[in-house]
Amino acid sequence: MSGSDVSETPIQGTDGEQSGGTTRSRIWSIAVPIVAVGAGFLIVSGASTAQGTDLRAERRTELTDLIAARQAQLSARTDAVAGLRSDVTRLSENGNISGSAASKTLEAQAGMSAVKGPGLTVELNDAPRSVQSALPAGVEPDDVVVHQQDVQGVVNALWSGGAQAMRIMDQRVISTSAVRCVGNTLILQGRVYSPPFKISAIGNQKAMQKALAASPEVAAYRTWVDAVGLGYREIPEKSLTLPGYNGSVKLLEARRAP
């Protein structure tokens, strides 16, 4: 066979190769439109969310407004501090005159200064020993001695009757002073007292006597005065001098009134 007789025959692919090429062409023809549609959707969504504005620029605007508001608040507070300092300076300069008068007024209202004026003294005492040694039928030993609630009842009635200042025994008391009794002894601001117990108050005598007469606690006590001889006296005072309160002003316990 001579070289001129050799001919080239084209190599044709098999049926499988031809079908594979056709399938890949179809996939690409479907995928490209889907990708294009998806990209368009994302672009439209982003534009709709931003609503034609720059989101970063919007945040910068909000931050600027917040800073401006804080600066305005700081400026207002600075002005307030300056005004208060001015008031302090003015009051310090006038302290020898107005400050002293105001201090004395507050001391009097708080019960820290001595007070003098007309008033009323109430005296409570245990029953005589003769009664205590031979108790009537149905009477207990506790019924013939003065108790904490008896003293407190008188104190409360005097305050409600308009008492301006008060003293129990030899100590000035205020509206938050606590009265405690152990047995028939009175404990007041760390000191112990035995009966008779004297409560003195400066104020309108008639108003305080009326308040005592209207008090249920005092009325209950006076029932036993008649029954077993407990001591009770109201003594009008033309002039009382009460010392300033020197106890603690810290409130340790309080309850809501019923």
Descriptive terms for the model:
three-stranded antiparallel sheet; alpha+beta; elongated; 258 residues; five-stranded antiparallel sheet; disordered N terminus; 8 strands
Care to describe what's here?
- It contains 7 helices and 8 strands.
- By secondary structure, it is of the alpha+beta class.
- It has a domain at 114-242: Protein of unknown function DUF881 (Alpha-Beta Plaits, 2-Layer Sandwich), CATH 3.30.70.
- The protein has a 5-stranded antiparallel β-sheet with strand order 3-2-7-1-8, with helices on one face. A 3-stranded antiparallel β-sheet has the order 4-5-6, with no helix packed on it.
- The longest helix has 39 residues, at 55-93.
- The radius of gyration is 48 Å and the shape is elongated.
Short description:
The chain has 258 residues and is of the alpha+beta class.
Q: What's the SSE blueprint?
A:
Elements (H helix, E strand, L loop, with lengths): L14 H36 L4 H39 L1 H16 L4 E11 L3 H5 L14 H13 L4 E4 L2 E3 L6 E3 L2 E4 L2 E3 L3 E6 L2 H10 L1 H13 L2 E12 L16
Antiparallel strand pairs: 1-7, 1-8, 2-3, 2-7, 4-5, 5-6
Helix pairs in contact: 2-3, 5-6, 5-7
- What value does the average pLDDT take? 75
The CATH homologous superfamily of the domain at 114-242 is called Protein of unknown function DUF881
Describe the strand arrangement of the main beta sheet, using strand numbers: 3-2-7-1-8
| CATH architecture group name of the domain at 114-242 | 2-Layer Sandwich
As for the CATH topology of the domain at 114-242, it is Alpha-Beta Plaits
Please bin the fraction of helical residues. 40-55%
Number of DSSP strand runs:
8
Unreliable residue stretches: 1-19, 52-56
Number of helices: 7
CATH class bucket of the domain at 114-242: Alpha Beta
